[in-house]
Design a protein that fits this description.
Structural class: alpha/beta
Strand content: 15-25%
CATH class: Alpha Beta
CATH topology: Spore Coat Polysaccharide Biosynthesis Protein SpsA, Chain A
Largest sheet: 9 strands, mixed
């Protein structure tokens, strides 16, 4: 029997660093519209829905023809919002798609879907990309992943890990060990997603401010899928919009 796949974009208006960022326009289109339209290019997703508690986002998504559901205002995380939307429907696999990454490549979504469909034991999966520069290695805004021999996550952290003890100059660390950054798209089997959001916040999650650590701390596994796709731009502050504009301009020259 074919497993069905729902993509959900959790969308909130109130962001501490950049309020209303999902509705910020670049070349006349809101950020969330870029995300939605790119995600629609997935070959394996059966449905795509935005989940929000904000009327402004609801109306904006309706205006460009997207599907959207109202959700509770009480959610502490995007994953809780995704889980609520998932409960309204009957899909086997749920993909949590970040609403603030406008140049998202749908191939990343499909990589996750394929990995989950191909292995019934996988309850949760996410993406990693190899770090290629020292600047990227020390960027405090990036989350790093350490994986085991079977490509399951051992840990997620904002610190640079592992520590290469025998190489004093950090700029040389990439020459002796492969470091990976986390790409924050998640795939879940729906039953595990509902279990996950019912777990209490974990101690590691509290200190790192990384929700996925709850899964590991409770003894469950996250499969890590490696991608060669370009890491998406994350709109966290107004200056990031300019970076996205430059990206669009560069892409238009390639056509």
């Amino acid at each position: 029997m074919k497993e069905t796949v729902l993509g959900v974009i959790p969308a909130r208006y109130n962001s501490k660093r950049f309020e209303g960022k999902l509705l910020a326009k670049v070349n006349g289109k809101p950020v969330i519209q870029y995300v939605y339209e790119n995600a629609l290019n997935s070959k394996y997703m059966d449905e795509l829905i935005v989940g929000t508690d904000d009327k402004r986002i609801f109306e904006a998504v309706k205006e460009f023809g997207g599907k959207i559901e109202y959700t509770s205002r009480e959610h502490k995380s995007g994953t809780e919002r995704v889980a609520e939307v998932a409960r309204k429907f009957n899909f086997d696999i749920i993909i949590n798609i970040q609403g603030d990454e406008p140049n998202l490549n749908a191939e990343m979504i499909d990589q996750l879907i394929k990995s989950i469909k191909n292995d019934k034991s996988i309850e949760a999966a996410t993406l990693a990309k190899k770090i290629s520069s020292y600047k990227e290695l020390i960027n405090p805004n990036l989350v790093r992943i350490v994986v085991d021999k079977n490509n399951y996550a051992l840990y997620f952290t904002r610190s640079v890990v592992p520590y290469v003890r025998d190489v004093k100059n950090k700029e040389d660390w990439l020459k002796v060990f492969p470091f990976f950054r986390h790409i924050g798209i998640y795939g879940f089997r729906n039953d595990f997603l509902q279990k996950f959001v019912g777990m209490n916040e974990s101690s590691l999650e509290k200190v790192e401010k990384l929700e996925q650590l709850r899964i590991l701390e409770y003894g469950y596994k996250i499969k890590v899928v490696y991608t060669d796709s370009e890491a998406p731009i994350s709109i966290d502050v107004p200056d990031d919009l300019e970076e996205f504009r430059r990206y669009i301009k560069a892409k238009s020259r390639e056509i």
